[in-house]
Amino acid sequence: MSEEKTYPMTAEGREKLQLELEDLIATQRPEITKRIQIARSYGDLSENSEYQSAKDEQAFVEGRIQTLKQMIDNAEIIDSNATAKDEVSLGKTVTFKELPNEDPETYTIVGSVEADPLAGKISNESPMANALMGKKIGETVAVPLPNGISIDVQIISVTK
User: Could you tell me the pTM of the whole model?
Assistant: First the structure.
């Protein structure tokens, strides 16, 4: 028997997925069904681009619904209180600077489902977060880069 994959995420992230799922089921699915019915009324389905487009969209939406259900059902809500206050872990926000003297950067470490680097949320599976996990304020950490070299960063602060 295969073990289900768990999806670490914050309670906020789970709520966001739940809202997306509800929108897909309550709004988008019925709209696509209507478009398919209208497109069918045009006759010959073999050369009906509206029908094919709606069917493709329906397949995408149904796939996304199944994916969201699986993620929500197997969500592992992050408890940032389970680690020391000054320790980097899932659900915490960490500020660090690249040595010797780069500007500080701040990111919240979240599960891969919630990752959004432009919004300051990096995946726990990213090289940066992976290297920082379990480290504490003041520590210097070597972060491996894809090109085979590494950079040194110093942890400035950790908050919940």
Answer: 0.71
